[in-house]
Design brief:
It is a single chain. By secondary structure, the protein is of the alpha/beta class. The protein has a single domain, classed as Spore Coat Polysaccharide Biosynthesis Protein SpsA, Chain A, CATH 3.90.550. Helix content is 41%, strand content 22%. It has ten helices and ten strands. Strands 1, 2, 3, 4, 5, 6, 7, 8, 9 and 10 form a ten-stranded mixed sheet that branches. α1 links the parallel β1 and β2. α1 packs parallel to α2 and α9 packs antiparallel against α10. The radius of gyration is 18 Å and the shape is globular.
């Protein structure tokens, strides 16, 4: 490429020493060279700060101080970013080695790029989540660790809303779509995530926030949003119950064939 746009990558962390090093190495080990790396620590009391200091000479900026939650930490990082493109990767997630290279090629002419996400249970690869922004009016169909946004979108349409605890990324991306931002899908795995994420542990609250967000941007569909919420909760509960009693294959078959965005089991 004649021009290598600067990509700002932001990691937020709070007491994340267990996996932080893997996250950092995945950013610094990219095949793409034009990257500035920013780490926002929320005042960790474990070994996270010591790990960050080991890499301080390779970071564009880092800070450790108390914040008002995930959205606040993301916003601090974005406000420090100088890149044309901004990516967010949490301290227990990690990138594929060529993620930036593939994303930068794909985002030309677009505002938001996103790809596939590989989910892990423990040390075992379990499923690849595809993404599809066409269905984001219904639910969160993009995989947040794989999402990269032109910084201009943040400047024009705002940062993360501190009012959301679990679905702040959904609010942001639905807002961008409603404002006419152009999305492009990268047909490759860009990032990896562990199942034990915050929204996975508190999925009912996350679903409630998603419904409120849809009501905010699409108020004419409030009744549909309520019905969809109940459908989604029932479906998730049923899936968890079937897996608990040993019907994992049935759940996988349904999710790989009939989900709005089909999953690929490995």
């Amino acid at each position: 490429m004649d021009h290598l746009p600067l990509v700002s990558v932001i990691t937020i962390v709070y007491n994340g020493e267990k996996h932080l090093r893997q996250t950092i190495e995945s950013v610094l080990g990219q095949t793409y060279s034009s990257i500035e790396y920013i780490i926002i620590d929320g005042g960790s009391t474990d070994g996270s700060i010591a790990i960050i200091r080991e890499y301080s000479d390779k970071l564009a900026y880092w800070i450790s101080e108390k914040d008002k939650g995930i959205s606040d930490a993301f916003n601090k990082g974005i406000q420090k970013a100088n890149g044309e493109i901004v990516g967010l990767i949490n301290s227990d997630d990690w990138y594929e080695r060529d993620a930036m290279e593939k994303m930068v090629k794909a985002i030309v002419g677009f505002d938001v790029a996103y790809g596939q996400l590989r989910l892990w249970k423990g040390n075992k690869q379990e499923v690849i989540f595809n993404g599809d922004h066409q269905y984001i009016d219904y639910e969160m169909t993009l995989n947040h660790p794989t999402v990269f946004v032109k910084r201009d979108c943040y400047l024009k349409f705002g940062l993360f809303d501190l009012g959301y605890k679990y679905a702040m990324d959904y609010d942001l991306l639905l807002r961008f779509k409603m404002q006419g931002c152009r999305f492009v899908h990268v047909g490759a795995v860009l990032a990896n995530m562990r199942w034990e994420g915050l929204s996975d542990q508190n999925w009912v609250e996350a679903c409630k926030e998603v419904r409120k967000i849809k009501d905010k941007y699409l108020p004419e569909k409030k009744l549909f949003h309520r019905l969809y919420f109940f459908k989604q909760v029932v479906a998730i509960r049923l899936g968890k119950f079937l897996q608990k009693i040993g019907f994992q294959r049935l759940v996988r078959f349904y999710r790989s064939r009939f989900s709005r965005v089909p999953k690929i089991y490995e």
